[in-house]
Model the fold of this input.
Amino acid sequence: MGGVGEPGRGPAQPGAPLPTFRWEQIRPHNLPGDKWLVIERRVYDISRWAQRHPGGSRLIGHHGAEDATDLSFVRKFLQPLLIGELAPEEPSQDGPQNAQLVEDFRALRQAVKDMKLFEAKPAFFALLLGHILAMEVLAWLTIYLLGPGWVPSTVAALILVISQAQSWYLQHDLGHTSVFRKSQWNHVAQQFVMGQLKGFSAHWWNFRHFRHHAKPNIFHKDPDVTVAPVFLLGELSIEYGKKKRRYLPYNRQHLYFFLIGPPLLVLVNFEVENLAYVLMYMRWTDLLWAASFYARFFLSYIPFYGVPGALLLFVAVRVLESHWFVWITQMNHIPKEIGHEKHRDWASSQLAATCNVEHSLFIDWFSGHLNFQIEHHLFPTMPRHNYHRVAPLVKALCTKHGLSYEVKPFLTALVDIIRSLKKSGDIWLEAYLHQ
Done:
């Protein structure tokens, strides 16, 4: 048995007894340039390697000084970084945990793997891409055959919105490497869908979205809920109220959400954030892919509308797809627990931050199967056509451990976004006035 390790120790020598560490020794190693991880009770110093992590240093850094057994998919790179292991008397998790839940979830994941639910059906995704491309062609043909009048233009814009929204879902599948067996094929296909069909950077999306999955609904780690000071969510409402912060009338945020939330997220925030990322990280290939989208779109529609009309069509499509995107992606998260880091195990953290929406063929298509948000967060690399098959197993796991497995009607889920914003705003106002 190795002795108790000392902070700063170098990589373990092959064949030598591994030093052991207590959680109190591991916790301080959660600083920029000083990151340790625990995976299957082994301790790794990832301080330098984090910069080369496929998901970005921020993603892996969010798990600094934590157990990351259920997150890491790059273990073949970790052996040179091994510095020790947890002391035998130490629990596998530091902080709130349910050891039996962790064990049962890992058993479930293995069972799901044995059932081949991580294997994709090529025909399913080929059909998705086919109907997206068909919508693009149909929109152009509508204007070509019927002319650029208001009615054909409105019909074409709605068809393009369908194409754009469904492209979000398909690139999301590819970003999670749930379509092809080889990761590289997923990455290339995602660059095509995200770049040529949508005009965005695939690397930007992954940089943003993987952090959401790593720490859903955690302030400063999940970019989807780090929206202050424009909106206040969850625990931040009372904090802002106590500190007498009033940058906006937050007790009215459920109303101004309709003005600056769904209409502008994709058109303004995503466009600016995407361009800033591409320039900062010099993703020139992504920039060329995005340029190909704009070239194709405007060369297709300027002959019918001129430059001003083509710009108007582009803005209309972006605003409408933004509505679709916001309502679908937030209905599963905004009404759930939102706050600061709780250091829960993987399954508990995902279940606390997600809920499902009732299943139907239309809702599955309309939401890109994100109505199965619980299953998606627990098994992010699973092809979406298998969510309904794993759902009963996940529900049984939750029942066994007394955990909430929430499934809502679609319209209720949408309304709950507004209810949650209003509730947070009212909490802020109460704290602002009386605490």
Summary: The first strand starts at residue 20 and ends at 21.
